[in-house]
Amino acid sequence: MTLRTDIAITPELVADHGLKPDEYQKILDLIGREPSFTELGIFSAMWNEHCSYKSSKKWLRTLPTKGPRVIQGPGENAGVVNIGDGQAVIFKMESHNHPSFIEPYQGAATGVGGILRDVFTMGARPIAAMNALRFGAPDHEKTKHLVSGVVAGVGGYGNAFGVPTVGGEVQFDARYNGNILVNAFAAGLADADKIFLSEAKGVGLPVVYLGAKTGRDGVGGATMASAEFGADIEEKRPTVQVGDPFTEKRLLEACLELMATGAVIAIQDMGAAGLTCSAVEMGAKGGLGIELNLDAVPVREARMTPYEMMLSESQERMLMVLHPEKEAEARAVFEKWELDFATVGKTTDDLRFRVLFQGEEVANLPIKELGDEAPEYDRPWVAPEAPAPLDETTLPALDVAESLLALLGSANHSSRRWVYEQYDTLIQGNSLVTPGSDAGIVRVDGHPTKALAFSSDVNPRYCEADPFEGGKQAVAECWRNLVASGAEPLAATDNLNFGNPERPEIMGQIVHAIKGIGEACASLDFPIVSGNVSLYNETNGRGILPTPTIAGVGLIEDRSRIGRIGFADAGQTILLVGAPDGWGTHLGQSALLRDCLGRHEGTAPHVDLAAEKATGQCVLALIRSGLATAVHDVSDGGIALALAEMAMAGGMGAEIEARSAPIRAFFGEDQGRYLVTIDPKNLEQIVAEASVPLAVIGTTGGDALKLGDARSISLDDLKTAYEGWFPAFMGDTLN
């Protein structure tokens, strides 16, 4: 065996590849010799945090991942859930945080492209996308540039590819100044009996490279995504991939056409770590070896080395194992779509990962150990310290009306119209609700009644104050948003964004958040079927807020019964559903505290999961029976902000009864609550049949919102406050 060792493997080179001395020693023990430079790159790609989950794997195993509708849970490109009638929804969320901070347009664009590939790799046609975006403080020097680039990248790729962006989040906090978050979600539809997996089967079968050519863009991207940022951040720009949505659209059509021929045995997207990760995962899952010949790999740049080809993260590429008798038919499909098709290797029975280049063997590694025996750490952690409860006696006197207008005009609670109007939210013609509602809703094309709902949620301030309750709340709010849209919540995907897990206090956040997520998912019958972990989100030792984003999918059997947030008619009774002890009391870590007073104090609100489930079932029954005329969950900003959003969406005001502690009542963020409007003639029936707390709090009508004894706020004033911040911040420009 001759392995190229033309580059000396020094301790400095090992460290540059993100490998610690004990990890490098494990490599030496595993292969019994010094690795070649290419092999070092392969280990670096496979054993980094982004690909191996070495710090989180122990805790991720505790999450509930099974359910009566789950066809495929974690471990594949995306999760698969049965929606009946022979169909399945396939979905996942992934991060592209580090690349988007370095090069916001391409970082965000390729994040969208990567998550779309995860979905159609499994045989689904993408039908919806969302993005959960978190930026630094609005007054930070880079924030405006990053917002502009990321939003343009999301829209540029998604719009050109042809998938509607149906929802998402955009939030600002100084803790993201040096490390923004771009979490991309996609969902697609497929026949439940035609799901394609990545497990290679059969010996001596062709391994085929499909799609775009390989370049030097993104080399080392997965390793970069597994490290903190420092003063050398600008030097990392070459590790950011470059996307082409039109090539991806052709790749989608070619893959779906090829899948229909029966030629595909296994398929894997070339995402993080590119050719390395896709080949190793396919072989390791199938208990097979893989031999690659890099001379056959289509390249777009001259004199590419084996190291560069194996670690390139060039976009719009796939790797497949095909039935050899159908290879010519498969080639014809890809040539028709003007995409590269190259047989670059074969499956073997020796459990080795061999890489050949110009007649020499540049890598020969044990494939199972490479894929399955990455270091796994039980990192030390300390339980997060609970903050002191909020001392409400220190709060200044606040006016309800002025506080509401301040929230509506703030960075975190103003309209996101400036963002979502850059996205095509209606392409494919199936969107039933546009962004700005509790959930995005897309009809199931070809089905007479069904629709799917999508939501993404997390409150990072809750998660820092109490990671366990914050993890529970992220799941509960996502579940609640699906219920408020009229959907039965089916399953979730997570994107766990944290700082450096080698710091025990950060690892404690991770452990407690996962425990909270797991408890909530189990209680709400809302399994996690796919996801992503993004760690080391720090710059110069300053970590982000813990941000375990939860995205969920719900099923609407009858799309004529959808929950909408806008007040539907005057004279309707407004019910507060699910508040057992008055309207609300919890101001700790609230939007009012953060965004009106600039204070970050108190504990996170408690989430009573049994009450969440009972209340959600009650609200869902009201929607499905047609008794609910408008529905909105109560979250950030409490009842006041929820009522304002309902009034603006419906173009109609409301009068709400007075409360003795108006700031707590209107802005408290107690969990598990919904606002529901009904025809007053149905009130007696609803109260008699309800098994959860209900309170009549007001009546719809007029052209103003009056909250108790506070002054009335006209709809025009609400909308002026709500719609003004984002265009003013961005200079009223879309570029």
How does this structure look, described?
The radius of gyration is 26 Å and the shape is globular. Among the domains are: 67-372, PurM-like C-terminal domain (Phosphoribosyl-aminoimidazole Synthetase, Chain A, domain 2, Alpha-Beta Complex), CATH 3.90.650; 563-735, Phosphoribosyl-aminoimidazole Synthetase, Chain A, domain 2 (Alpha-Beta Complex), CATH 3.90.650. Helix content is 34%, strand content 23%. The protein has a seven-stranded mixed beta sheet with strand order 8-10-7-11-9-12-13. Strands 23-25-22-26-24-27-28 form a seven-stranded mixed beta sheet, sandwiched between helices.
Highlighted features:
735 residues, alpha+beta, Phosphoribosyl-aminoimidazole Synthetase, Chain A, domain 2, seven-stranded mixed beta sheet, 25 helices, 28 strands, globular
Quick recap of the structure?
The protein is an alpha+beta fold and 735 residues long. Helix content is 34%, strand content 23%.
Write the layout of secondary structure elements.
Elements: H1 11-16, H2 21-31, H3 37-46, H4 49-52, H5 57-60, E1 70-72, E2 79-84, E3 87-95, H6 97-102, H7 104-120, E4 125-135, H8 143-161, E5 165-172, E6 181-191, E7 206-211, H9 221-224, H10 245-259, E8 264-269, H11 274-286, E9 289-293, H12 306-311, E10 317-322, H13 327-336, E11 340-348, E12 352-357, E13 360-366, H14 367-372, H15 400-408, H16 417-420, E14 431-433, E15 440-443, E16 451-457, H17 460-465, H18 467-484, E17 488-497, H19 504-523, E18 528-534, E19 538-539, E20 542-543, E21 547-556, E22 573-577, H20 591-597, H21 609-624, E23 628-633, H22 638-650, E24 654-656, H23 662-667, E25 674-678, H24 683-689, E26 694-700, E27 704-707, E28 713-714, H25 715-729
Parallel strand pairs: 4-5, 9-12, 17-18, 24-27
Antiparallel strand pairs: 1-2, 2-3, 3-6, 4-6, 7-10, 7-11, 8-10, 9-11, 12-13, 14-15, 15-16, 16-21, 17-21, 19-20, 22-25, 22-26, 23-25, 24-26, 27-28
Helix pairs in contact: 7-8, 7-10, 8-10, 10-13, 15-25, 18-19, 18-21
